[in-house]
Every structure is written in C-alpha cells, then in structure tokens.
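The record is kept unedited without comment:

——
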Amino acid sequence: MYVIPKEVLFIGQIFGYFPLKVKDGFRGPTRLVFSSKIFVCGVVLNLLLTIFTYLSLAVDFWSMMRGRPAHISSKTGALAITLDFVTLHLLAVSVFFNSSSKHQIFIDMCCILDRTDKMIPYRCDKSKIKMKVILVFSFLIAFLSYNLCHDFLSFQKKNQDNIPYMIYIPRYILHLAPALLLIQFTFVAEGLTERFRIVNIKIKLEINKHIFGAFRRRQGYSKDVYSTDAASTVASIKSMSECYWLLCDAVKKANMFYNNQLFFAVFSAFVHVIITLYYFFVVIIVISPTLSSLALLATWISTHITHLVLLVNSASDVTNAADRTGPTICRLVNKDLDPEIRKQLKTFLLQLTHRNAIFSANGFFQVDNSILTSIAASVTTYLVILIQFQTTQNPDESSASDLKFNNMSNISSFVNRS
C-alpha cells in the first residue's frame, strides 16, 4: 500500500490536521485507515484555536476602543490584522475538514499509485523527505519562537489592562497548517511528476529497443536482451498507456482532495504578501528602521512568497510532465517502426486529447506557474494604492496610528521601538 512518509503523517496526527493512520494488515500489506481518535483530537484542537484566536482579536479591539491599545492602534491595523488571522484560520480549518471529509479520496489515490508502482520502478527517497520535514519545521518553530519572544517583550511594555499573553499563542500554532500542507502536497506532486517522467522514459526506451533489434536482425544477428520484437513492444506500450491513465486518475483524485486547500493557501499567501510588503515599505519610508527589523520583515515576506511558489510550482510540474507525453509520442511515431507499434502509438496519441492532469483552486482557476504572474501584478497594484494612501497622510498621524499595527511579524514592535 502506498502511504505518505511516517514523518509527514506523524506531524499531521499530532496537530489533528490529518486523521489517518497506518494499519498493518493481517497477512497482508499495510494500508491507510481513518482514525476516529485523531479526528476527535483535531476537532477539539481546532475548536480551541478558533476560540482563542478570535478571543485575542476581540481583546485587541476592546483595548483599542478604550484608548489603551496593546496590539492594534488604528483602523488600518485592525483591517490588516483581521485579514491576517482570518485567512490563516480559514486555511487551517480547510486543511483539517478536507482531510477529514475527503479522507477516502486520499486513500483511493494511494491505492491507484500503489498499482502504478507495481508497473514502473518508482521508489521515493525517504531520506530526502525526512530531511525536508526536519528543515521546514525546524525553521518554522525557531522563527515563530523568536517572534513570540519578541512580541511578548513588546506586549508587556504596553499591556495596561493586565491581559494574559497566553491567549495570543494559538495565533502562532495556526502557521503549522500551511507548513503541513506544503510538505504533504509537494510530496504527492513530486511523486506524480516523477512517475509521469518514468512512463515517458520507458516508452522511449521500448521504441529504441525495438528499432535497435530490427537493425540487428537486418544485420543477421540473433535476438538479445537489448532488443525486442513487435509483439513485446506493443505489450509494453499498452502497459505504459494503462499506467499513464492510472496516473491521470490519481491526479484527479489528488485535485479533488486538495482543491479547497489550494484555494485558501493561494488566497492566504496573496493577502499576507500584500500586508507584509506594505508595512515593509512603510517602515522604510516613514521611520528609520533597524537592521534587525528589516531582516525579520524580509524573512516573513520571503516565507510567504516561497510557500506560494513551491505549492504552485509543484502543481505545475505535474501538468507539464503529463503534457510531455504527447510530444514524445509524436517524435517516436515518425520513426521506422512496425505497423502494429505505430498503430498502438497513434491510438495512445489520440487518447491523450482527453487527459485532465491539472490542479485547480476549487474550480476558480488552474494552479500553475501562469498564476504567479497574475498574482505579482495584483500585488503590485494593491501595494501601489496602499502606499499612495500612506504618503498622502499627515506624517505625525501616520506614525501615531497605522505604524503601531502589530501582527505575527511584530511590526509594531519595531515601529514603537524606533
């Protein structure tokens, strides 16, 4: 049974975002099954995260209206921090509920990939996956811990109402959901890409072996292991064709499982990139920032952009790998082949017009590299508008209100300290 690496599964189980577990079959292979215990833990954890996240927002608004702000000091800051955590919370909820309600789709995808792995020699690099998990979560935990300590020190200086800081910690836990989605989705997408690549290589190899065998037979040599006859070549092409369509079915299942999660991930990254870039430019334009403040803001910007690019690029690689099969067969069909082989290739080529190996964001748009250009253009447009509004404000008013905004990036800490 094809399963995701235990490291990815374990991280998802701890935080309740992926309620599946590996079950050893009696005298049979292991398989993925739904775990009611993990699901209940996930429901409780997500409920607590929801309560404390919006409780902390309500406390921030309450303190702002009383004129003793601890985090939010202006309407601009209120809007930004609300968008920040609402989009992040929607992504976390989407990851959990889609993993729970659509777990059977994921299991079906794993069964399909298990069948393809028996037809092609694919094995995932477990050490590479383990290293990726360690690097991503080590960076995330270290970075969020630094932000947590920095925000706590700044909060204590401005906390006039003795608000317990513990209510703000769940905000940081929300960032684990996009990290889990990144690791899990990129693993699945990279595996699909590599399988499509192997199918293309094996088709070319079978054709080249047949051409080489025909050449040797014309030269009077007997058949050897490096050449094949027409019948075995046709059988191999049929096998690779079946494997290709199984992979397309696996992509369809993966898209059904991830489409909502990809939509909220792209939307969340889009909002966060705009917010962090806006305050990065505001800090540069209005105040004299410290090097550490610029470095931390730049790290948040890079993190959001990298998360978006990796997700989109992984989905695009799957589509591109599936699309390469058509041109590959077009080049092979024009070679000197047996009529039966050429007929089989042409049949496969005609069937490729019905393929649908794409990922979409809940049907709103296709997730591929082309949307990165559109997102960059939209971010630039909104950023220019926001900066224009900022520069038309009174400098004293700006420094007293908008620049006191505080979010996960601890922007207000840098501003108030400066």
Observations:
- The chain has a mean pLDDT of 78.
- The beta strands are 20-23, 31-34.
- Residues 230 and 339 are 9 Å apart (CA to CA).
- The radius of gyration is 27 Å.
